[in-house]
Each structure stands twice: as C-alpha cells, then as structure tokens.
C-alpha cells in the first residue's frame, strides 16, 4: 500500500510509535488521518499540527462501542478507511505474582482491542473489496518479554490473531501486517529502565533501541511491500530463526541473558 491519498486510523496515537506513524503518514500525503487515544487533548493537538486533514477522537479501545464509534467517526468524515492501525498497548512488569487486574487489562488492551478494531472496520472494507490492518504486536509476540508474563502471552496472542486475519480475509482484498519492533525509545521502555525492570534491561541489551521515527519508517516500507511481518529490528528475524531451529538452546541463552542483567 502506498499511503498517498489514503485514509488511516491510528489508536494509541498520543505519543511514541502512534504519533510517529501519524506524522510519517502525513508526510507521505495521506488524504486523512484519524487519531485515537484516551488523551483527547494530545491527539487533538497532534491533528491540528499535521499538514493534512486530521481528526482527534477520544477512545477507550477496551470498550467495543467506543471502537465502533471511532470507526463511524472516520467513515462519516472521510467515507472510507483504507488503513486501520491497532497500535495501543500496555506492559505490566509482573510474572506469576498477583498484579491486581494487570492480566485482565493486558488482555483487553493488547488483544481484545485488536479484535474490536477488526470487527468494527472489516465490514466496510469487505464491501469495498480492499483494506489494510496494521497490528502493533511487538517482538515479544515472536520471542518473549523477560520479566513480563502478561505482555508475553498477550503479544503472542496478538500475532496469532493477525495471522488468523490474514488467512481468513487475505483472498478477499484484506491485507494484514504485524508490526514487531524490539526496543523503542518510548516512555514505556524508559520507565522500565528507570525502575530497573529486568525485561526493559534485556530489551535494551538485545539490540539497538530505535526511535519511534525509525519504526514509522519501517512501517511505511513494510506497507509498501505488503509484508506480513514488519521488523524494524532486523535481528529479530535471526533470533526467531534460532528459536524455531533449536528452542532448547534459545531458551538457555535467554536464561543466561536474563540472569546476567537481573
């Protein structure tokens, strides 16, 4: 997909990767961009600063009616949605200990929000015979997130859902990409490093920490090629190959890496 003249919706757009995607899509000449987040003030300000027509919408992606309202707002303003980016996500930093509602919240934001987005946007896309879904899944969905069990499990589920979408709708004009970056310089990673979270340390040590703008550049290239896996960190492909070729050796290496940084 070339983004010039296209209409895109981005959830989790108030900062980090979401904001970088919005700015990069605008630079590519998008016809319209709908920016969604819990922080309405931030996405409204971002929309007003873009060089293309844009709209900020407050959306809680864990509430299906609000996701439907987001899609309806985009369709009302632009008449179509070419690209829907399910980008909102959260970490928890817990393992087996009781994290309150952390497991449920991770499931709602990292998985069910993707389901709600697809459920809301697919009917109109299928009627037109074309559309693109971009799911932000994280390299944790292909590998693991040391020190964060809910994030690991839900991001694996997100990749699985993206695969299912591609298999089910790929022959009906729906293209799907799973965005799986590793370390990205966002508040999520910086906060983890500040408190000494072992998962954040492993992420930072496993490869280069990219800027959100680097990730957005990789997304534009990946969408143009219509690749299922968009890997801003190319080393993730190598790690994944090692994992699938010899899981026991890979697991042992991950244990040593975690132990050295714990």
Considering the chains and any ligands shown, give keywords for the structure.
alpha/beta; Rossmann fold; oxidoreductase activity; Dehydrogenase; single chain; NAD(P)-bd_dom_sf; 262 residues; 13% strand
Walk me through what this model shows.
It is built from ten helices and seven strands. With 262 residues, the chain is α/β, with parallel strands linked by helices. The chain has one domain (7-261): Rossmann fold (3-Layer(aba) Sandwich), CATH 3.40.50. The chain has a seven-stranded parallel β-sheet with strand order 3-2-1-4-5-6-7, with helices on both faces. Helix 4 links the parallel strand 4 and strand 5. The model has no long low-confidence stretch (mean pLDDT 93). Keywords: Oxidoreductase.
- The CATH architecture comes to 3-Layer(aba) Sandwich
Shape: globular
Separate helix tally = 10
Q: Classify the fold: give the CATH topology.
A: Rossmann fold
CATH homologous superfamily heading: NAD(P)-binding Rossmann-like Domain
Average pLDDT metric: 93
In what range is the share of β-strand residues? 5-15%
Strand ordering within the main sheet? 3-2-1-4-5-6-7
- What is the CATH top level name? Alpha Beta
The proportion of residues forming helix, as a percent range, comes to 40-55%
Low-confidence stretches: none
Largest beta-sheet characterization: 7 strands, parallel
Distance between the termini: 42 Å
């Amino acid at each position: 997909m070339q983004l010039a003249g296209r209409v895109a919706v981005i959830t989790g757009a108030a900062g980090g990767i979401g904001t970088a995607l919005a700015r990069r899509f605008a630079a590519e000449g998008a016809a319209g961009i709908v920016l969604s987040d819990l922080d309405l003030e931030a996405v409204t300000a971002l929309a007003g600063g873009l060089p293309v027509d844009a709209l900020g919408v407050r959306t809680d992606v864990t509430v299906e009616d609000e996701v439907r309202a987001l899609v309806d707002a985009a369709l009302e303003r632009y008449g179509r949605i070419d690209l829907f980016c399910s980008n909102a996500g959260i970490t928890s930093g817990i393992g087996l200990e009781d994290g309150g509602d952390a497991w449920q919240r991770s499931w709602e934001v990292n998985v069910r929000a993707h389901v709600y987005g697809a459920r809301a946007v697919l009917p109109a896309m299928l009627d037109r015979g074309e559309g693109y879904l971009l799911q932000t899944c994280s390299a944790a969905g292909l590998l693991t997130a040391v020190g964060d069990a809910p994030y690991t499990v839900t991001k694996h589920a997100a990749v699985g859902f993206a695969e299912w979408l591609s298999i089910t709708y790929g022959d009906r004009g729906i293209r799907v990409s799973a965005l799986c970056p590793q370390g990205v310089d966002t508040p999520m990673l910086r906060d983890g490093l500040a408190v000494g979270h072992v998962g954040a340390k492993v992420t930072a040590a496993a490869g280069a920490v990219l800027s959100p703008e680097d990730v957005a550049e990789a997304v534009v290239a990946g969408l143009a090629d219509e690749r299922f896996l968009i890997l801003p960190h190319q080393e993730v492909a190598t790690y994944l190959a090692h994992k699938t070729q010899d899981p026991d050796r890979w697991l042992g290496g991950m244990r040593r890496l975690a132990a050295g940084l714990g």
